[in-house]
Amino acid sequence: MLKILCLHIAHKQASYRYRVEQFLPYWKQYGIEFEPVCIVGKNYFEKLQLALSSNKYDYVWLQRKLLSPFFINLITKRSKLIYDYDDALYSIESQRNNKPKPTHPGSKQSIERLNYILKRASLVFAGSEALYNYSARYNASATFLIPTAFPAQSNISLPSKINNNSVTIGWIGSIQNLFFLSIIDDVTAAIQQRYPDVRFSVMSGKPPEGLKTHWDFVAWSKEGEDAWLRSIDVGIMPLVDDEWSRGKCAFKLLQYMAYGKPVIASAVGANYAAVLHGESGFLAKTLDEWRSAFEIMITNRALSFSMGQASLNHFLLHYELRHVQNKIVSLLQ
To answer: Domain extents for the chain?
Structure first.
């Protein structure tokens, strides 16, 4: 039986839930013994003990954490290293307007550690094409594109009745990413004024602030996420076109798609692969294109419904949990 030690980030992080936790129930079906250990908060001696125990495993799977070269060397001398990441750790976050601290993405230390890990890894699992291209500069033969997965949902009821008067447009994401709603605020506010029956709903850790658009706020919870995703009619993902956003893995789009929702997204990075433009939703480069996409979704409900079906089909073919896990297993064996 293949044995893997997974050193992962904090349990509360979405990246852990969807790139580690959701696979845990299935590894034994593939003949793999998978041991997850949270590396966050470990002191020097605890990290040292974990690194020195690497020889007990066929692989050490390091999820996103940028360990120092000292620990990476200890691991790679004893086992094969897998590095898995889903953010552009080599760039400064879009919403950051000050110099990053050494442990933050885009800092000199983070870039140096990332590059060193990429060179030493036996396998690199990059969550988006931009991350794949970056990793391939340092370790092309070991780098593979592994999208963030999402489980297939049961009892997905796609709309069959057209109702032009009631449309809910939704955005789900972390507090840090609420920033992106400001990019399209002029458009969403204008749409809200022109179509009073259209609702804008946000699920996050807190309501957005300082926007012209009124967003109905739903506090995020693991238990409430399913009901909220079922309640919306259209899912959106605005981004700025910078290096950080180009590294994103389009995850919120996958959530919408898994529930058969048509999507509107900025034409940036992994969104190009997730959205079949004009078939499962729309990619927008300008505010005018955002406005046009909103109006089509609101006024042409038949098209919106067919896009939702195409969205679900595209998800099942490329991003569904077991499909992605099968790809990972093929690389391990």
So the answer is: 2-146, 167-318
216: which strand partners? 201
What are the start-end ranges of the H helices in 195-266?
A: 225-231, 243-246, 251-258
The class level of CATH for 2-146 reads alpha beta
pLDDT digits (tens, 9 = 90+) for 40-65: 999 999 999 999 999 999 999 999 99
The string over 98-133, giving b where at least 16 C-beta atoms fall within 10 Å of a residue's C-beta and e elsewhere, is eebeeeebbbeebeebbbbbbebbebbbbbbbbbbe
pTM for the full model?
Answer: 0.93
Whether 2-146 and 167-318 share one fold: the answer is: yes
Contacts made by residues 135-144, CB under 8 angstroms, sequence distance 24+: 143/118, 144/327, 144/331
Fold type of domain 167-318 = Rossmann fold (3.40.50)
What does the pLDDT look like over 100-130, one tens digit per residue?
999 999 999 999 999 999 999 999 999 999 9
